[in-house]
Amino acid sequence: MTFKPGEVVMHDGVRVTSPARTWLDLAGLLTVDELIAAGDSVVVAHGPDFPKPRTPLATIDDLRRMIAAHPGMRGMKTARLALPEIRVGADSPQETRMRLVLARTKLGEPVLNHVIRNSWGQPAVWPDAAYPQYRLALQYDGAHHSNPDQAARDRKRKETTDRLGWTELRIFKDDLDGDKPFVLEKVRATLQGQLRRQASGT
Q: What residue stretches are annotated with the DUF559 domain (predicted)?
């Protein structure tokens, strides 16, 4: 196996492949959706408006250049299919899965890295995904959300979301399972309720 300049880096004194090269290497082992999730984890970033800003391990352009540099590499078809669906802003594979399930229906793709601001223009809520045009915030709740401290933060977050005129919809792991994931019905029903309220002016 040969590496081009920049594809091997030092990390804590150990030589390892760069994040972009590692992602491409995984293309020969993962499904398209798994590789999308891996790509999301590599490019995830949050700006200064977030409580914990993050810089990406690599950019989508870095992944694109890596594909171009290795046209005959194993898994290239998977990599080329995955690349257009990678997005910046998903903090976990389950958030990626939620986004993909929604994006592949008539509901359309939710927005990542959206910031809900208060009346003074200050950042107030950071949903995992959102439909801003409907003021709908999606929050994926993993196992750690059962922790009492996290549960208290979640309640406060929902109160803030409600106060700012948005609707929060919590999504759980089993909502994403099956051939017809329940998340589709949850989001569809909530959006219909939002549209009815908008039409009635309430």
A: 133-191
